[in-house]
Amino acid sequence: MKKSILITLILLLVYNVNSHAQEKDNEKIKQLVEEYKKDIRGPYYRIKWFCKDGSIRDSKDPCPDSIGGGIQHASFKKSALDLRESNHLFFGEILASVKNEDFLDEKNNFSRLKQYQIGKYLASIDDGWVLKKGQFYRGSIQSEDEETWGKNFYENILKNDSFLNSNYYLIRQSLKDIPHNGDNNVAQNMRSESKVLAEEIADFMDIRIKIHGNPQKSDIYLVQGYMKENASKISSSNRKLFEKLLNTMDEFYAPLDYKVILQEISKIEDNNKLLTGLKSFLNEDKTSFSSKDIVIKLTNNLEFLRQTITLFKRSKDRLQLLDLSNQLEKILLIETQNWNPKTLEETILKTQTLTCASFATGLVEAWEFDLVKPIFSSTLEKDETTLGELTSLVSHARRIVEWSTSLVKANYQEDVNDYAAFESLAYGFVDDRIRNSITLNLGETVSKLNAYASKVSEVNNNVMNISNQDAIRGLNPGYAHGKLIVVDGNPDLVEVNSNNIYIFQKPPSDLKPVAGIMTVSEGNLVSHVQLLARNLGIPNAALSNDNLKSLEKYNNRNVFYAVSSKGNVILKLENDMTDEEKLLFNKVEKSKNMIEVPTNKLKLDVSKIINLRDVKATDSGILCGPKAANLGELKNLFPNKVVEGIIIPFGIFKTHMNKEMPSKNMTYWEFLNSTFAKAKELKNNNTSNEDIEKFLIRSLKELHTAIMNINLDASFTEDLKSNFSSVFGDKMGNVPVFLRSDTNMEDLKEFTGAGLNLTLFNILEEQKIINGIKEVWASAYTERSFKWRQKYLLNPENVYPSILIIPSVDVDYSGVMITKGINEGSESDLTVAFSRGAGGAVDGQSAETRLITADTSYLLSPARQPDYIRLPKTGSTKKHYTNFNKPILNNGNVNDIRELATEIRTKIGSDFSEQSHAYDVEFGFKDDKLWLFQIRPFVENKQAKSSDYLNSIAPKVKISTKIDLKEKI
Predict the structure, then answer these.
(1) Does residue 95 sit in the same domain as residue 35?
(2) Which InterPro entries does the entry link to (predicted)?
(3) Does residue 721 form part of some domain?
(4) Which of 31, 158, 403, 575 is the most buried (most CB within 10 A)?
(5) Planar angle of CA 216, 220, 221, nearest 5 degrees
(6) Which whole-number Å values give the CA distances from 657 to 449, 499, 605, 764, 814, in the listed order?
(7) CATH number reported for the structural domain that contains residue 861 in this entry
(8) Does some domain include residue 594?
């Protein structure tokens, strides 16, 4: 009896642990948030004493001195504690009793620390957020304990030089939110309080936008003037909110007390002599300084602090200097708004200074800054420049803005997305951080530079009538007509429509066909999404975060969108289209290059596994798809750079498709063909394209599910096991492998098909490989794969997947090379994008992108992907996190890439492709050894590039035009 009771108790305990650990869905979390907002204790349970010996006592039973005493604060409700276990979400965090390493949460990319910051932001814009009523729960948080904890936390983590250098931006940002010296985030409070008022009073919105987008001390007078003019309409509760905002603004714009700072830094004992220059600046009489003088001096001192911070060995000194850097940055943000350059030379100088400030405040890494510094210096050393040189300088300056904003997103976007799934207000956090940085004014300054360069070159965007549209630049030429959809949140949550034009914060990695796209973060130039867009002539452009916000008011409106080959962009309402633009969409006149995939050469009687060494490029579309055929060619041409491999040919797939499909009284193949025959019949009966597509997708989904459950022939599985042992040197189940879908509808002359079907990473177990084969076959019939093929191919029903199986290589970093310049550079240059770990760059990660010439490697964008995957020998994938304080590719890698490109151009001839092509090459580096994984022709949409209309809107630019730097701007 006792034994059964014990077992029951154990089972109940296990059940409770498992139930607590079960992840809660977003709807349940949303409900919890609403409950906490209405509860007078929020997520808290009761006030308790937390003793040094680990014991917890009632609020009226203090911890005795004999056990070391303790601290008093609120405990958490069970629901809040469960949420920590199940979803790693921390609401209403109380710092005082949290272990440093738990709060830092380094193994989860500092998620808990970042959540604390997001929670502070939400509290500032939503009246306490989960503590809407709980903020008045007396005794729940003791501010002095929180500050003591914060100071100890920083003095502990700042001992580590590597940590400080690698996370300079995150540390400086966290200092604005984590209590440690009585400070608070005044700038965020100012924006939050103005936002709350604008939501209460609609006609205050213009002033709120000014405070939000172009903050200046004169805004105080705007607020005071508004209060005076509208005194009779302002309620007493709103008057208090106005007074609170004015107090915050007074605090924000209060001059820095340099004498107090001097007294504080004089206490720094270690290496105090290094601070001579900083002390000199603090001692200077600044009454005669212009805003320009102050900005330059502040920037120089902020740069000095970043460069020398690790020379100060005491962590308390480092903390003091970091706090000082935040104080100096606050003044810098105010003074940059007051510096209004009049000439081209001074505007370039301001751009150079703010670029340096971006580095100094952590938004740009040291190695990135070193690459762009000479560009500004070389221009400012002369009296004049050329239009070509100015355009290049503007491009580099614009990149600094993009690098800065993308670093903010790289640090916070993952956690913001998690929060935004149950609290939409969280989306504003990243924007708030960007606006409280030098990036805001740098972006405005670069826009002025770009506007001047555009005026001289006559390259102008025509994007509605929004401001600062000089930040917009075309990536892929093309034109489109459809409904505009502006997506400010997570793009992966959006169900796209192929007839719409989308504006994304970041391109989704698994995008279905759309009419056109614009993105704040372009990802990288050679991701699958970008290649497909280029292939299909889908217009594609990059824009700024402010541009996206400005275009939100046109959401759900029908628009015309075009990108020229020179990169200028047109976006206008449907009613404003010219007759010429309307004719582009005349169904009779608009031509579309549709392709019919040849099937007459298929060898479907080959039903045995093929060794990779036994195929060549000429076998593509006959025995297998181009991935396997081309890799077989590469294995012969580059035997030491290509792994061994085996191929499941088309014939094995077709053999299985000839089996009877359960409950259908026909084979899988007959079901497939009858589906498309029915679609043709519907079309002949004038059924709408939308209804036909719905029918096809529904039927193909049924086929997809059936193939996932198909029974594999015993003879095939035996053949597979035998080849595993002979080719890979060990039995199936002991060698982790990639399974790559490889259809006859990829890498055609005018259709790439890049990334449409499934690749399974690092599969080890025998049963997972068996199931994986069925998954890969079935992936040819997913909605996304079908829609892309349907858009370009006349016979999308004739898809034949083969499968390439290769052993995993746990590369340190991997990516894609296009053997030509894309958007920049020439036919002889190389465009390369790399990310850390496996599968780099192809899925739209923010990759390190370079233009590699014969003797130079230009950084187009640094990597901003915080996570990556590695391939352990035990199979599956393991997620890791990284920082950005050093480049991915080293000089040796760049030279290896040049050599590889030369070899490809030399060795790959007419038997690989019928004419000279640029190539799309996937490869990686393991311990600096290059491994080749795939090569395919690089396919561009020639029709889009040669369109008469697109050529007509592209300006003729004379880059040799001379420009005097003293010219007014």
Answers:
(1) yes
(2) ATP_grasp_subdomain_1, PEP_synth, PPDK_AMP/ATP-bd
(3) yes
(4) 403
(5) 110
(6) 61, 33, 13, 26, 35
(7) 3.30.470.20
(8) no
Report the chain's terminal Cα–Cα distance, integer Å.
Answer: 91
> Where among 438, 457, 476 does a domain terminate?
457
Residue 668, classed as helix, strand or coil, is helix
**Residues 145 and 168 grouped into a single domain:** yes
Q: How many structural domains compose the chain? A: 6
Q: How far apart are CA 124 and CA 192, in angstroms?
A: 6
DSSP letter (8 states) at residue 64: P
Residue 601 lies in a domain: no
d(CA 408, CA 135): 29
Question: What percentage of the chain reaches a pLDDT higher than 70?
Answer: 90
Angstrom CA distances, 100 to 149, 771, 878, stand at 9, 44, 25
pLDDT tens per residue across span 403-443? 998 899 999 999 999 999 999 999 889 989 998 999 989 98
- Residues in the chain, total: 969
Cβ contact 181:146 at 8 Å: no
CB 618 within 8 A of CB 913: no
Q: Give the pLDDT score at 524.
A: 54
Same domain, 261 and 236: no
* Closest CA relative to residue 130, chosen from 22, 244, 31: 31
Q: 571 in a domain, yes or no?
A: no
What's 655's domain CATH number?
Answer: 3.30.1490.20
Same domain? For 772 and 848 the reply is no
Range of the domain at 296: 256-339
Please identify, among 314, 339, 364, the residue that sits at the C-terminal boundary of a domain. 339
Using a 10 angstrom Cβ sphere, with 0-12 exposed, 13-18 middle and 19 or more buried, the burial of residue 381 is: exposed
Q: Which residue has the higher pLDDT, 13 or 481?
A: 481
> Does the CA dihedral 488-491-496-500 come out positive or negative?
positive
- What's the CA gap between 885 and 168, in Å, rounded? 10
- Co-location of 222 and 263 in the same domain: no
**Same structural domain, 710 and 756:** yes
Reference 314, options 268, 262, 256, 355; nearest CA is 268
Are residues 774 and 854 located together in one domain of the fold? no
Query: For 947-951, which contacts have Cβ atoms below 8 Å and span 24 or more sequence positions?
Result: 947/477, 947/479, 949/479, 949/562, 949/580, 949/581, 949/584, 950/477, 950/478, 950/479, 950/562, 950/563, 950/564, 950/565, 951/564, 951/565
pLDDT at site 867: 93
